Amino acid sequence: MTATITPTELRVRLEDDPSLQLLDVRSGAEFESAHIPGSVNVPLDALTRVGHEIADTDGTFVLVCQSGGRADQAHTHLRAAGKDHLMVLDGGITAWQHADGPLNRGTQRWAMDRQVRLVAGSLVLTGIAVSLALPQAKWLAGAVGAGLTYSAVSNSCAMATVLSKLPYNQGPGCDIDAVVAQLTAA
């Protein structure tokens, strides 16, 4: 079972325990747009490569993403790598923002879930429109629907993984070696 922490509880814990580490597993661009002060960015795809190194560090990590899905995946990965002291920010940055938690803001970009909704919706509309002239195009809409269903059941999203690779979503490069060094030194 994944341990969660509410934004209110996190604010109190951050005041009481400065050794608490915040790992933001969103893309570099999402992190650049807004992040909790003191958090470090380890995008989910990078975390899967260095999870064992991060799992060997001391202290408690609070995993943060936009709404909780990617943080849950990061939790699963780090637990499998041997990290015991983990929590997920319940509701992610969205809940933190609604609770008036402080944020460092930078260049504003769309959150990954919003990008996925735009692309999925556009593909469905395109499939339906094109199917008026070419009936086989209806399967595009069906494929997107199947992909979204699988995404919900598996709590993963292939479309988000692909979109995260686009230059727009890269933001400033995450120096994963420096982040690991920072976490192991803390």
Helicity range: 40-55%
Order of helices and strands: EHEHEEHEHEHEHHHH
Oligomer: single chain
| N-end to C-end Cα span | 26 Å
CATH topology annotation of the largest domain:
Oxidized Rhodanese, domain 1
- CATH homologous superfamily grouping of the largest domain: Rhodanese-like domain
Instruction: Write down how many β-strands occur, each being a DSSP E stretch of 2 or more residues.
Output: 7
Instruction: Catalogue the unreliable spans.
Output: none
Name of the CATH architecture of the largest domain: 3-Layer(aba) Sandwich
- Major sheet characteristics: 5 strands, parallel
- Beta fraction: 5-15%
Radius of gyration: 18 Å
Q: Structural class, please?
A: alpha/beta
* Tally of distinct domains: 2
User: Could you say which overall geometry the principal axes of the C-alpha atoms support?
Assistant: elongated
Outline the structure in words.
With 186 residues, the chain is α/β, with parallel strands linked by helices. It has two domains: 4-107 and 171-185, Rhodanese-like domain (Oxidized Rhodanese, domain 1), CATH 3.40.250; 112-164, no CATH class. It contains nine helices and seven strands; from the N terminus they run E-H-E-H-E-E-H-E-H-E-H-E-H-H-H-H. It has helices at residues 7-16, 28-33, 44-55, 69-80, 92-98, 112-131, 138-154, 158-164, 176-185; strands at 4-5, 21-24, 34-35, 40-41, 61-64, 86-89, 104-105. The strands form two sheets. A five-stranded parallel β-sheet has the order 1-6-5-2-4. The chain has a two-stranded antiparallel ribbon with strand order 3-7. Helix 3 (44-55) runs parallel beside helix 4, helix 3 runs parallel beside helix 9 and helix 6 packs across helix 8.
